[in-house]
Amino acid sequence: MNYNIIAYLVYIPLTLGLSVxxxxxxxxxxxxFLLEAFKRRDLLANATNNLLQTGFYLIAFGFSFMRMRxxxxxxxxxxxxxxxxxxxxxxxxxxxxxxxxxFTLILGVLLFxxxxxxxxxxxxxxxxxxxxxxxx
Length: 136
Fold this sequence. Notes:
The protein has 136 residues and is mainly alpha-helical. It has helices at residues 3-37, 42-66, 89-120, 126-135; strands at 73-77, 80-84. It has one domain (3-135). A two-stranded antiparallel sheet has the order 1-2.
């Protein structure tokens, strides 16, 4: 049994699924911050939100694919490189835990980075908000 293939078959759908779930959650909940920051201009807020989601996907998928390679212990034997692949279900589970744990941490960092960016956007003053409401 090739445990590396099993690890790939678990790792790829889980990382892609986690990425999509977090990206959709961010996209849904970031809109309120962007509407406030862009003074209720829906078109600008939606465009920015979509670009943030696209950037999130690119970073998350890129990191996922970069970290996809499953551990191979290598050594020189008879003047050639020999690779030892995952040899047991325990090694497979441990390797997946390391891969998925680091990926989940990166998604968390991206989430908080996105939230930090939202907090750093300029806030409209209350007088500006009142003027916007009157104009509507």
